[in-house]
Amino acid sequence: MFQKALSGLDHLYRPGLSGKDESCPIDEQELGQWHYLVTDPKGIQPRQEPMYSSKDPAKPKRPMGAVLEISLRRRSGWTRWLQVGEEEWLFDISPKDRKVRMVEVELQKGSWDFEVSVAELKLYPIPGAKNSSGTMKLGETFTADEKVRPRRSRGAFLHVAGTEHWVCDFLAGQQQLRRLDAKEPDEEGLSPLVIHTVVDERPEEEEVEVGEWKYIVLDPKGVTLRSHPTYDKAAKLKDRLEEGEIVEILERRAGAETVFLRVETTEGTRGWAFTTQPGPGSFLRLLEVEVKSCNLYFQVLKRSHLRRRCSFAEAAKVGRTVEKGQLLHVIRRLEVGGTTCLQIDSGEWLVCPKDQGAFVDGPLEVRKMHNEEAEVRAADAVALRKGPTELPWALTKKVLLPGSKVLAIRRAHLHGEMWMEVMQLGGLSGWMLASDLQLDFSISSLPRRNR
Question: What pLDDT shows up at residue 343?
Answer without folding.
Answer: 94
